Protein 1
Amino acid sequence: MNTKVKFAVKQFFSFRPQRELSLSNRYISLAAIAVVLSQLADFGSTWLGFQYGASEGNGLMAQVIHSYGFGGFFAVKMLGAAFLVYITWRRKVAPWLVAGLYAAVVIWNLSLSYALNKAMESGLC
């Protein structure tokens, strides 16, 4: 495997990644906001899905929702957002990968909510 690829993979999955100090404050702030917004969007789309009868696919988060409700789920999502911001802080690509991954999750949640809503309207559920 190419040494640059190995280095990039190792840095992405490291809890103590090498920070890029040359990144501007504006860039790192926008990246942190993108990570937090992705977590908020995941929370909102999950909540919406529950309104139409969906269930949480992540077993750990399903247990949090079952035990502590959506308030507990929100708290865990915000703690997770803080952790993800810390892990991706001053890294050029990592926060955008995280935000992109959660954007895909949000799209999935919204498509599932839409399908469940259509099924309810047509009397299938």
Protein 2
Amino acid sequence: MAYLTVAQVRSRVPGLANTGTYLDAELTNLVSEFTDIAERFRGVAFESRSVTSEQIVRPGRDVKLANSKVRAISAASIDAVSLTAGELAALVVDKSVGVVSNGTWYGGNILLVTYTHGFDAPPEPLLRACAEYCRSVAFSDRSGQGRDVIAQSMDGSFTRYSTPDWNRGRPTGYLEVDRLLNSVADFRVPGVA
């Protein structure tokens, strides 16, 4: 499910109401693009998702799943041998960061795990950021200026535009979108991109 439907984007941004100029497919793609950026930047899914992940395991070592905010592990196998319900129940999962420990790996090599992760629904600032991202990209695609101006000098005719820079907290380069994204909790593990 998308953070916002096309109808919700159009409702939040009346300037995108023209269905002939701003096609449904374009807005759907922009919502999807924003979802990917937001979740990579904050390190968590803001909607519940189920995934299957394959990882190499070492006996006695913890396994870091690809996602944080793990809700439940529904199935797992080691080298194509399914874990029993008891073995699944014995797993210790740090759900906030997605680390599985106390695994009964038995010297196996490949862990295949199916789990659910993420929040129930995105918070309002993220929905506002999504609508603003759709507006900013759609409008810039049709204008001569694609980015927000963050510095300007008239004498030397110098203009500096905001561009994406994840290390400086600007994942999109659109100032209002990035401000809203930065207002949402960060779940990234330090040192992991």
Protein 3
Amino acid sequence: MSSLNNPNPNQDTTVYLIDNFYNFELNVDAALYDAVLSYFRTIFTDNLTAENFALNIFRISEATGTNVLEILDSVRGQEQIELTATFSYYLNNLRSNTTLLGVNAVTQPAYYAARNVVV
């Protein structure tokens, strides 16, 4: 008979993370996901925001090869604005340069290059 402290070894104890927008899929340990998600739930009041940050920390870990707990320790103690800036830095390395996060400057194309663009 299983309880919360003793999981049933016949059941799968992994979480399947899916992000359809970025086409990202990953199997992670349920205990590790719960630890990361519970940390972000203490920072953010919105559950969806906490889940998105938890998903993104696993995306960063997968892309950089860094342990999730090491990344979590590096962002521990940061406020919401600091977390957003840190995650923007990491996620910008995973994205196309045309869709960077946290960049407010609008880039102006060269006049002759812009003239040749057909809309």
Protein 4
Amino acid sequence: MLLGIVFAGWFALAQKASLTCSNIATAQTKPVSGPGATVAVLKVSTADDHSKDSHLCMADYQLVITQSSADKPTTVDLLSSDDEWGRGLAIQLSGFSHDGKRILGMFSEGIATPMQQVFEYNTDDGLVRSFDLPKLAAHLTTKKCLMNTQIIGTSENDAIVIQLRSGKYCAHTTRWLLNSQKGPLRRVPKRASVLELYGASSDNR
């Protein structure tokens, strides 16, 4: 039987950071704590790509995970992109899934064709899944509305739950299930349970 929605995590604030892509620059989020004294930080590092035929900027996105039982942090390479110099880069570390087995977040780039991806890192098997949000939500909303997207939790069947905030570019607040890298987003059923993220900040509740 479907349970009532868990409201506590709806408006939890993701840890965020941003920078302009340039030579030798770095930005990272504040640490997010998970179960078992596990701590995660999302970072982006940029540099000139040193191409002979163009002047582009390389951006490398990494997740750095520290566990009390490990001698040194684990660095997970999430994505590398090579595109316009001076483009805006933004990262969000949303938190751990309720069971602590997945770390969720987002990164985006303000280029001619904006890039926005949701990522999911599985702490059990070390696999990374990424979701092309503009592509998966193209039938639902505008790109400007997508920039207000926030990961708010997971569903009972482990799908990622995202929320499109209401505002200037969005008609209304809507919540969607993200569980396929190819299929379209599906609306969260009205009485479905949404499990809040572990370690997410909730300053604006």
